[in-house]
Amino acid sequence: MDRIIIKIGDITKENVCAIVNAANCSLMGGGGVDGAIHRTGGSEILQECKKIREHEYPDGLPTGECVSTRAGNLASMYVIHTVGPIYHQCGEHCDELLASCYTKSLKMADTLGCKHVAFPAISTGIYGYPKDKAAHIAYEAVKHFLEGHDDMEVSFVFHNNEDKAIFVNTIKEKH
Ligand code: ADP
């Protein structure tokens, strides 16, 4: 699909309306993409996350859900924080929860008026999701959403060539 862009890069540098953060339920920052986004974006993001925790999600953001903040010093306007499933804990709900991260983030972006959204490979780092399985789910969910929203486009931003290759090969095999 020509409204899906697949690239290698650092998602914190993406100059799009919204980037998606592979957050954890605390919304207080962490390692991987989450750490990079908070480090580069600065304290405005964490301040907003703290308010969200206080007012909307005192027990933390559930897996598969998302919230948005502004993006501080980042090039994007918004950060959409979503919590991916932890692969060895999500059991039979893994695929559904991972798909939900993508679909709900895109719905939120649409509500924010964002036409271009960049995603990292949610759950494929510390959360241990097999990269080929995650690729299939991510692509399916995004393609399905974009089919109903023909003014939107999505970038998948991979950290390295190998991760990008796994994604591209999985899509070629399965689609
Ligand atoms: P999770 O906890 O959801 O697994 P991680 O941040 O550990 O999230 O990793 C998700 C994916 O993001 C991994 O494939 C990792 O290599 C990649 N990643 C890490 N930092 C960046 C970055 N700055 N830009 C894009 N992708 C990144």
How is this structure best described in words?
The protein is an alpha/beta fold and 175 residues long. It has a single domain (4-174), classed as Leucine Aminopeptidase, subunit E, domain 1, CATH 3.40.220.10. Helices cover 41% and strands 18% of the residues. It has helices at 32-41, 43-55, 94-111, 131-147, 161-174; strands at residues 4-8, 18-23, 66-70, 78-83, 116-119, 153-158. Strands 1-6-5-2-4-3 form a 6-stranded mixed beta sheet, with helices on both faces. Residues 10-12, 22, 31-34, 36, 84, 120-127, 157, 159, 163 line the site of adenosine-5'-diphosphate (ADP).
Features:
175 residues, alpha/beta, Leucine Aminopeptidase, subunit E, domain 1, 6-stranded mixed sheet, binds adenosine-5'-diphosphate
Relative strand content: 15-25%
The CATH topology is what?
Answer: Leucine Aminopeptidase, subunit E, domain 1
Distance from N terminus to C terminus (CA atoms, Å) equals 11 Å
Order of helices and strands: EEHHEEHEHEH
Name the poorly predicted regions: none
- The dominant shape is globular
Distinct ligands: adenosine-5'-diphosphate
How many beta-strand segments?
Answer: 6
- Roughly how many Å is the radius of gyration? 15 Å
Helix proportion range: 40-55%
Structural class: alpha/beta
Number of H/I helices: 5
What is the number of independent domains? 1
Q: Largest sheet, if any? A: 6 strands, mixed
**What's the architecture, going by CATH?**
3-Layer(aba) Sandwich
Strand order of the largest sheet: 1-6-5-2-4-3
